[in-house]
Amino acid sequence: MKIETKCLHAGYTPKNTEPRVVPIVQSTTYVYDSTDDVAAVFDDPTKSLIYSRFENPTVMAVEEKINALEGGIGAMCTSSGQAASLLSLLNILQAGDSFISAATIYGGTINLFAYTLKKLGIECIFVDADAPEDEIRAAFKPNTKAVFGETLANPALSVFDIEKFAKIAHENGVPLIIDNTFPTPILCRPFEHGADIIVHSTTKYMDGHAVQGGGVIVDSGNFDWTSGKFPEFTEPDESYHGTIYTKTYGKAAYIIKARMQLMRDFGCYPSAQSAFYLNLGLETLPIRMKQYCENAKIVSEFLEANDKVESVNYPGLKGSKYHDLAQKYLPDGCAGVISFVIKGGRSTAVKFMDSLKLASNEVHVADIRTCVLHPASATHRQLTDEQLVAAGINGGLIRLSVGLENVEDILDDLKQAFAAI
Ligand SMILES: Cc1ncc(COP(=O)(O)O)c(C=O)c1O
Question: Cis omega (within 30 of 0) on the bond before 155?
Answer without folding.
Answer: yes
